[in-house]
Amino acid sequence: MRSILRAALLAAACTFAVSAAHAQDPVRIGVINPTKSLVGKQGQQGAVVAAEMINADGGILGGRKIELVSYDTNFLPNEGVAATQRLINQDKIRFITGEISSTVALAVLQLAQANGALFMAAVPKHPAVTSGYDRVFRLNSTTAMDAKDFDAFLVEKIKPTKVAVIAENSDFGRLTIAGLKKLFGDKIVAAETYEMTQNDFNTIVTKVKGSGADVVCLAGSNMEQYGNILRVAAELKLTAKRCVMPGILNSEGVRIAGPAADGAFSADIYVTSLDNPLNKRFVEAYKAKYNELPEKIEVLGFESVWIVAKAMDKAKDATDPGKVAKTIHDNSWETPRGTVTFEKNGQAVAGPLINLEVVQGKLVPAKQ
Amino acid sequence: MFDILLQQIANGLSVGMGYALVALGLTLIFGVLHVINFSHGETFMIGGLLTLIATTTLGLPYLVALPLAGLGGAVLGLAINWISVRPLLPRRDGAADVLLATFAVSILIHQAVIMLWGPTPARIDGVPGAFEIGPVVLTGQRLFVLAAGLALLVALEWMLRRTRFGVELRAVAQSQFAARVVGINVDRVNGVTFGIAAVVAALGGALLSPVILYSASMGQVVIIKAFVVVVIGGMGSITGAVACGLLVGLLEAVLGLFAGEGIATAIIYSLLLAMLLFRPQGLTGKRAR
Lengths: 368, 289
Known about the structure:
The complex is a heterodimer.
Chain A: H1 2-24, E1 27-33, H2 38-56, E2 66-72, H3 77-90, E3 95-98, H4 102-114, E4 118-121, E5 136-138, H5 143-158, E6 163-168, H6 171-184, E7 188-194, H7 202-210, E8 215-219, H8 223-235, E9 241-244, H9 251-257, E10 265-268, H10 277-290, H11 296-315, H12 321-330, E11 333-335, E12 338-342, E13 348-349, E14 354-359, E15 362-365
Parallel strand pairs in A: 1-2, 1-3, 3-4, 4-5, 6-7, 6-8, 8-9
Antiparallel strand pairs in A: 10-14, 11-12, 12-13, 14-15
Helix pairs in contact in A: 2-10, 2-11, 3-4, 5-6, 8-9, 11-12
Chain B: H1 2-33, H2 40-57, H3 62-85, H4 94-116, E1 130-133, E2 136-139, H5 140-162, H6 164-174, H7 176-181, H8 186-212, H9 218-233, H10 238-259, H11 261-278
Helix pairs in contact in B: 1-5, 1-8, 1-9, 1-10, 2-3, 2-4, 2-8, 2-9, 3-8, 5-6, 5-8, 6-8, 9-10, 9-11, 10-11
């Protein structure tokens, strides 16, 4: 009897010791980002804040802390693949989050699928990122999703009579021109494209001014380019309303344009001033750590780690990507931009776009 | 339509002067040292960066920042010459080695700036105001670029024709060997030429960064156009570089108006090819010798 009791005690002690050790063992999550670039850094910093907030709350799975294992992808698919290989083979991590570039994400996706890993893509916008793998998720909206909300806003609220488009010579720019031509038909009076390396926009803006458009839509992802176009438009005294296509305008671009950005409008999935407790906490934590205000890229970086960690906690599992993926699909998730759910293909959905405008050098929700 | 054409001509001239400013230094170095300096675009970028630092971090007025950028350019130019040109030039394939070495230097400068300063582009506020002449609007900065570009051209031509150094420089450009024989310090002439070219490049960066914005890649973009200008204008010709810079700017703006930007670019590169095939000495057909 005594020996049985002693054995039971010993076993209990062992279990306790094991679970205690387990509780201290951090849960490791992989993060990939082009960290040498500005956007990559923004996404990465969002991810770090997510891990710190979860750890400050006592971690997940009964007290285990989150540990991020981060690698640079340098906007290159081969470096993205190398980073993913290192995560899967060397670090034995099958939960991968982050990334900005679609081409990198598409390459990483192949490898993730081959190894049964979960991939929570933060920013990549290409439609093919969410096609046909049940453990891939994408947090950013797609251009098609943006257009659906924004087109209605343009047609019903802005009511232009003549529209000009200035777009970068890329997939995104050309698709935007095609979309607006379909939407406005004969009302499109000018559609100009510029090279991704171009830095003088006087010629283009002069042509657009000559077209007599009352609304000018800008579709370019480089803030130094659209910022400069806004500046040149002001210099050449362009009076048309200036619309920056959804998902592009950020405070860095507004800063580059300076006073010339005032009055420009746009829309996005997130704005720093959103009024909910989690967003307020996130904005405060981010500002305390980096002395800057977070924007969309930071939030998407944050969400990628936040949702994966919360789903691990809910699934009571930090090792099985399939189980965690199913939990992500089956539940809705509170993040700084509100409640996020996932479509069957892994696309995140969270409320309508927020209309934005630039008032005195600040990007704020539009009053309309 | 006529109003737009006038505006495009003004735009084209102001853009073209930008090309000319970068091409000037490139053509000067080619004329004297007979080498292609690939790091020229990065010197241009450093001129922009120094202007940005002087006007924002140090809070200096733009017109004070301008000579500082030129000074920084001179230091950088002399250093590039000392490290990557002077030791290689006497070799048998010196010109090719210099091309590769300055290419390496350009990547080094570019990456160092991204690492130390960061990749974020920035706005620089230059000469304020805008002038309306009839239907044509030109900002103060663009007019300033045009005026400063012309002033630099005149100063360079004067230096070449009227100063002792100008005579030495033209002698070295004609024949390094003969120049040495008559007692000209060729290494010094080469070094000073490199320095002058770098000052012009850095001033170009300082002048244009308020128009095109500062970014770490501004040098890489502009150097390609500058090569086109130098080839069409005639390798080594200073007047050719300026005239051709203005011409390329004008062609881009006016053709862009009637045929679209893509066609305009295609025509300019076709012109480059035609020049190389049928008139390799360039439009002006003579060198700064």
